[in-house]
Amino acid sequence: MNKVVVGFDFSSGSAYAVDLAIDIANRFESDIRLVYVKEKNEAEGPIREEIERRNAAVAPLLKGIKLEYVLRQGNPADELTAQAREDKAALLIVGTHGMSGMKTSMLGRNSYKTIEQSPVPVLIVREDFNFNKALETIVVPLDNSDDTRQKVAAAAMFAKAFGSTIHLLGLYTAKAADVRGIVDGYVKMVEKFLEKNEVNYTTKFIDVSKNVTADTLDYANAVNADMIAIMTEQESNLSSLILGTYAQQMINQSRIPVLSVRPKDVMANSVNN
What we know:
Blueprint: E1 4-7, H1 12-28, E2 32-38, H2 44-58, E3 67-73, H3 76-86, E4 91-95, H4 109-117, E5 122-125, E6 137-142, H5 152-162, E7 165-172, H6 177-196, E8 201-207, H7 212-222, E9 227-231, H8 245-253, E10 258-261, H9 265-268
Parallel strand pairs: 1-2, 1-4, 2-3, 4-5, 6-7, 6-9, 7-8, 9-10
Antiparallel strand pairs: 5-10
Helix pairs in contact: 3-4, 7-8
């Protein structure tokens, strides 16, 4: 894995994001880049001193990897995604209170924009999650949408590194046989992909009774999940990527870390055979 980029602003949420980033980066032998987006008139000296102090405190946890930081100025979402591009990062991690604009437990506008713009998967972590628990269980919901399988490769990468089990959740959103058949087919493709890559998995199918978000979260909580993988949604009538309703609801409501993957046409083929 290439570099892991982490949004940081001294909040407890961003501090947890750093802790999780160290665990992930150690396993993938990747360096970490902390990104602090400062305000226009904010003095750099105290910021650098505090970041360097904190970095020194966690240095013993690093296993042959580097923990570096950079100060940027501008819109937090723009600067984080720009840094991810410059570093050719493989992952961007943000705490729920890890960027300007996060004034409540609900993610702020800048967080949504980060996920929409990010060229790499974004892992959103909440400060109230139990980070002492190992990443053992990853939930991957699959529906009948064209890009639903594209998150599987990223989830499998984590599962291989952590020895996790992927819980495939086939979501039937309609009674129509053709819709259910699409879900069945996608799940079989993913199972074949996971078997080929020697990733442990389980499979469950459910009829959506509340809504996709609520039912996915109910299942994730029932299996004591440590991560949920979702797609950043794209409206078919728009040329730009937007964060759809399902993704917004999932990120707002989930206390479990959410890995959001941006659709890419070339990725779908990786789980088609």
